[in-house]
Write a structure and sequence with these properties.
With 245 residues, the protein is an alpha/beta fold. It has 9 helices and 10 strands. Strands 4-5-2-1-6-10-9 form a 7-stranded mixed sheet. Strand 9 and strand 10 form a beta hairpin. The model has no long low-confidence stretch (mean pLDDT 97).
Length: 245
């Protein structure tokens, strides 16, 4: 059974920069038996990154849509895993206002990092938190999941304006703030299932030192460098825009 200290040791062994920015995609089940459960995992990540910035996706795209258009910042549950849902509710954690692709952040510069996501009409705009990951030269930690769950790649496709990735029309969505103020946030949406093809670049990522592998508890993990990832994806997608089609 893993303890918080085990996870602190694993993060150090993985070479995670405790002063940097870390985005975590996760499968709690993959980690194995943990003393104290999921909260212990979050305790370890939060303690390790106490001098940096810790970020989790808290997406709601699976159920916020034209038929159910209101995203409640404080109440709408994350649809991308147990750790993300627990993290967003922790003391000190703040959540962005994007109706389908919000993130939650804790630590250095968290407010600036999450600010303004609701100003853009796509899921992963360059000016949003997804683009700020590149500005921060962030690390992406994929715990028990593979590149198919790496939202950042959606972002790179958006920034390159790859055809057929977004709807032409907008859905009328709304973000409801903690004080009940309602903001109109019309959104274009991702179309197709291109993320299911993201594993096509795994070998290229490994061969070009964009990504390396390790363990966190029982979980196989992938550690990605956003700067190197963006440079390589730009080259690959400019050569073959239909790479993930």
């Amino acid at each position: 059974m893993y303890t918080k200290q085990d996870f602190l040791n694993h993060l150090k062994d993985l070479g995670i920069d405790e002063n940097g920015t870390l985005l975590v995609h996760s499968s709690m089940k993959s980690i194995g038996q943990v003393e104290g459960g999921a909260e212990t995992v979050l305790d370890a990540l939060s303690e390790y990154m106490k001098d940096g910035l810790l970020v989790f996706p808290t997406h709601t795209w699976s159920y916020i849509n034209a038929e159910n258009p209101r995203f409640y910042v404080n109440e709408s549950p994350s649809c991308v895993g147990l750790l993300t849902e627990l993290f967003r509710q922790r003391p000190g954690v703040i959540r962005s206002w994007h109706p389908t692709h919000s993130v939650a952040a804790l630590g250095k510069g968290a407010q600036e990092f999450i600010a303004g996501n609701e100003k853009w009409d796509t899921p992963c705009a360059r000016e949003s938190s997804w683009g700020k990951l590149l500005d921060h030269k962030a690390t992406i930690l994929l715990v028990g999941v593979d590149l198919r769950r790496c939202t950042y790649i959606h972002g790179v496709e958006e920034w390159l304006d790859i055809p057929g990735r977004l709807t032409d029309s907008h859905e009328k969505l709304y973000t409801v703030l903690p004080d009940k103020t309602e903001i109109s946030v019309p959104q274009r949406r991702h179309i197709g299932h291109t993320s299911e093809k993201y594993n096509r670049v795994e070998e290229a990522f490994l061969n070009n030192q964009v990504m390396y592998k390790g363990h966190f508890g029982d979980a196989n993990v992938r550690i990605c460098d956003t700067e190197k990832m963006t440079t390589l994806l730009n080259a690959l997608l400019k050569e073959k825009p239909d790479l993930f089609s």
